[in-house]
Amino acid sequence: MSLSELRNSLPDYAKDLKLNLDSVLSDAGSPGVDAKQIRAIALACAIASRYKPFAAAVEEFAAEKLSPEEINGAKAAAAVMAMNNIYYRATHLIQNEEYGQLRAGLRMNVMANPGIDKMTFELASLAVSAINGCGACMDSHEKVLRKHEISAQGVQSALKIGAVVHAVAVTLEQM
Asked: What positions carry a catalytic annotation?
């Protein structure tokens, strides 16, 4: 199914999600990020939300503006954050500081050359980290984004895209 068909299949009780999805996937509804960034963030978040039909529809939408390499970059953000968010959330939440001081030893080579520009990768990683609930990763990505002059609105837009995409995926999966 297409993204439009899935959006239209949302039940009446999720009318706000329909409206919000249209908004956050548009340039006007996501200030501070461009059309390519919107699509990369949305794809990474749809993958992180784990509802395969929705992720496939968002990938089709993303492919309208993203190259195959950029699609893979968005997928890489979802993949590496699936690992990092678990590890770093755990070391942050465990009440023993020793774990936070140990070398993680986890391979993250994709972060050096993700296939999309670094700030788009960071925006997608931030939004996926929000979905996965990793405060340590959110804080780290937000600092990098702000250091590289991504506006507060850009950061907020990435978070809104993640929130809406996740809510739509959860709702569709329950139908």
From this structure: 134, 137
